[in-house]
Amino acid sequence: xxxxxxxxxxxxxxxxxxxxxxxxxxxxxxxxxxxxxxxxxxxxxxxxxxxxxxxxxxxxxxxxxxxxxxxxxxxxxxxxxxxxxxxxxxxxxxxxxxxxxxxxxxxxxxxxxxxxxxxxxxxxxxxxxxxxxxxxxxxxxxxxxxxxxxxxxxxxxxxxxxxxxxxxxxxxxxxxxxxxxxxxxxxxxxxxxxxxxxxxxxxxxxxxxxxxxxxxxxxxxxxxxxxxxxxxxxxxxxxxxxxxxxxxxxxxxxxxxxxxxxxxxxxxxxxxxxxxxxxxxxxxxxxxxxxxxxxxxxxxxxxxxxxxxxxxxxxxxxxxxxxxxxxxxxxx
Amino acid sequence: xxxxxxxxxxxxxxxxxxxxxxxxxxxxxxxxxxxxxxxxxxxxxxxxxxxxxxxxxxxxxxxxxxxxxxxxxxxxxxxxxxxxxxxxxxxxxxxxxxxxxxxxxxxxxxxxxxxxxxxxxxxxxxxxxxxxxxxxxxxxxxxxxxxxxxxxxxxxxxxxxxxxxxxxxxxxxxxxxxxxxxxxxxxxxxxxxxxxxxxxxxxxxxxxxxxxxxxxxxxxxxxxxxxxxxxxxxxxxxxxxxxxxxxxxxxxxxxxxxxxxxxxxxxxxxxxxxxxxxxxxxxxxxxxxxxxxxxxxxxxxxxxxxxxxxxxxxxxxxxxxxxxxxxxxxxx
Lengths: 332, 332
Description:
The structure is a homodimer. By secondary structure, the first copy, chain A, is of the alpha/beta class. Chain A is built from nine helices and 15 strands.
């Protein structure tokens, strides 16, 4: 039988991970038993939150176990089924992670409709990152038409959806990202303003003030946003990619008392608490993806053996839009 | 005519104020013109937020002007009236500040019922500090019965009301303060736990976790509370007395990313936005003050010339309960 390759965590990194923290393992492809399905993955997802799971620390998801597969989002096709709910050929999104073939008892498998959009979007603009943007902006940030929204990490899978959903809601949108190419893309997809944080201090770029800050970055960017927020502004606390590889605790923001003087609300959320909003999200956002009024990009790396490098690249900001690893056929 | 004495701001302090930053000035007592009332103050209020107003920085209230009276809360009696709404002998709370006699056109004067409680409580448990506790706990923190509430600065005017209102709402209450005497008083008035932050690190005292943190202190206490907050906990951001005299920006909290992982909400508020809740507050809380099921203490300094020292003492934590300066007769 042909093997299935998968990526295991080999060591817990200090600071930025390197490829030696991972190991490629070959295993046999199992046969599904009664009630089970075998999935051949087309894409696996690399996401910033996974960095936290590499540490041996209690958090909202348990840490990855040493010597075990890196779990996480993936999309693939059912290639053998002993489960009536999933026929062979069906596309499914699941959380079984960095492997070419996955065996499932059906729990946690989400059917994905590839007639509307490519399978890869089930991990991006129509998947967890898109839902993160939707829930964060609407349920946590409660944005209103006419408000100014600032999103950092704006050229990523979440950030680019945040900006475009905010535009659909009638907001003015400012985004920051880490290269001229990213900034150009943000302007192309309708951001009112976009800046490269290497070139322009955020505090300066936000001079006229903002109502909502969607934070993917933390640290000094959060400090700049606190300074720029208007009365009764909101901080949607989603991520802090500037800190995930830090070996020292961050010193910023040092102006947190502005939460009091400006009556700000800062609220954190985890998308997995909000899967009940998936249907509303897809109903509202999928049509915009289909007619290209909401756009997305993907940065695709080929081959499961390159998943660690893709993940490290993501942490270094090498992606535009959703970072994916293609590990199998993606023809629908 | 006898003079009225008042305290003016003489210099803007760096760090902890000293008495040389203030000056005592004698002025004539004016006669009320048509529509005006003359008030003889019984008590003036010294409050932590006033430290921020001594800096020349834009904030939620304008800075005190150099060479002008320190405005702020006071309670007194109308001694001459040319205004039909306020008869001579009426007790009123107002914001005209650190002076023995105040002239008012009636705007911003709040009648105070001294048959229910002494005039001094109009600046404390039944005034702005009490309302701050009420609005912060109920409207911002949305505490529920069975939750654990931690309040820092617990022996102050706001903190002692926070703890007791939380108890009335069926919460478990932990308080921290800066002396053994304060801690003993907190236990006496019904706090489930109380600790002296000099003796016990907050992180240790909060070991079993909290649902709501009412923050009067900021800095490292906020950091400890972030660590102790449970999932979906709330931070009621009210004050940061640990920082008001700081000459360097604070480095704590360094664990703010816990807002994301624990889905926390941190929200700031300013009591003056919530004066519409005064009637509900008095209806609910005044009966408890009257029957002593909600208790208060006052630390009273005599003589307007001692107001600067009282204020500095407040910033150094020398008060138990509400810090007041008696500047005139308080017989109702």
